[in-house]
Amino acid sequence: MSISLDITQDRKALDRSNIRRVVISSWIGNTIEFYDFLLYGLASALVFGKIFFPTISPLAAMLASFATFGVGFIARPLGGIFFGHMGDTLGRKYTLMITLGGMGVATFLIGCLPTWAQIGVWAPILLVLLRFIQGFLVGGEWGGAMLMVVESAPANRRGLLGAIPQTGGFSGQLLATGIFALITLLPEDQLMSWGWRIPFMLSFALVLVGLYMRRRLDETPVFKAVQQREQLNPTTEPGEKASSPVVEVVRHQWRSILLIMVLRFAESVPFFMATVFAVSYATSQLGVNKQTMLNVVMTTCVLAFPMHAFFGMLSDKVGRRPIYIFGALCAAAMAFPFFWLLESGSFVLMVLGYILLINIAHNSINAVQPAFFTELFGPKVRYSGASIGAQLGAIVAGGFTPFIAKGLTALDHDDWSYVATYVVIAALVAAYAAWRAPETSRRDLTLDH
């Protein structure tokens, strides 16, 4: 009981400026991480097939390029396990400093890579290796950044404050897309020789800003309370080795991990279909100008900020489950209309399609994930559980979506109907999982579940 009182007092002591610093620093860090990660997705769709896989057919090159995009997702659960253990034992702040710095180095090195024309097969091998490292580090970033905010927020604002740094994925996408939109103005030969490298190398400067912000953060009140409780009432005998948080969460809360994996289908499949596959499909098959598609994506990213705040705030009032179910059903309903609007070639209609699928369906889901996923676990295994579940879900639901979508269109002369059907099924499965999930918005984060 005394620990619960202590944590309540700690939260009251966190004034608005301190909470604001936690939210902003997590948003900046998340922006940088996703700038690095999503930049690769754009390059996969527009550049990498030609410069790293030039000796195979255009279809095979595109599939190979999207496969390297998926490699990063394979590494993410490994990063979730490694950094989840570190975050639950050594602390959130220390772990996040490592993930951010390492991500920046890996992205910078991608910008330095020689191409197939320069070193042959070693070029795609090194590309895959750096992509794997990227994914490994991102696997530990998302869970920690979300925990920093949710564990520091007042109980009645966890949804809203957790949703704000979640927009880092869109600010990162906006930044990556904006820079790519500028470099695509270069002549084709300059774009393919050196222009594509600029966005990757710029990551180094962004990382320095993020590291400065993260260095100023304190550990969360929840993590401090767990440490204090362990000191007062040790759960292990002297000399006895404590069980790993990863082992504990897999042993006792595997259902919550599985739940998160399924829930991610309604968020990841539509997002990566629209922001990676659809960009490539529209430019290569529908004849839409690259700059037009990049502008469409950028418009969607800008609108994501108010939509996340709205849905996050709404989840604090009505709960996480109703918002998640609403978003998943919207994603299922909008899959086919999205492609109809894309086929129009009209900028206005394509923006409308992206607003309906991304800004309403996806954003409502994405906004509640930080609070929802965090609240499913107890404080001693929270970093591990949320990270492992989210990153395992990212493999099956997100990383290979562009690859699967490209393969599905190849089945019937570039027909997109199979892709839309895939989105519908993924969203409906997630809606059912959300319906069966527990409501978590009123849980005490200091207590084990």
From TrEMBL:
CDD domains from the UniProt entry: MFS_ShiA_like
Gene Ontology MF: a single term: transmembrane transporter activity
Stored Gene3D superfamilies: MFS general substrate transporter like domains
Main location, first listed in the record: membrane
Membrane topology: Multi-pass membrane protein
Record domain Major facilitator superfamily (MFS) profile: where: 22-441
Transmembrane segments: 59-83, 95-116, 122-148, 160-182, 194-213, 257-281, 293-311, 323-341, 347-365, 386-404, 416-435
InterPro entries xref list: MFS_dom, MFS_sugar_transport-like, MFS_trans_sf
Protein name: MFS transporter
Highest taxon, organism lineage: Bacteria
Keywords, comma-separated and alphabetical: Cell membrane, Membrane, Transmembrane, Transmembrane helix, Transport
Keyword Zinc: no
PROSITE patterns named in the record: MFS
Keyword Transmembrane helix carried by entry: yes
One GO cellular component term: plasma membrane
Localisation: Cell membrane
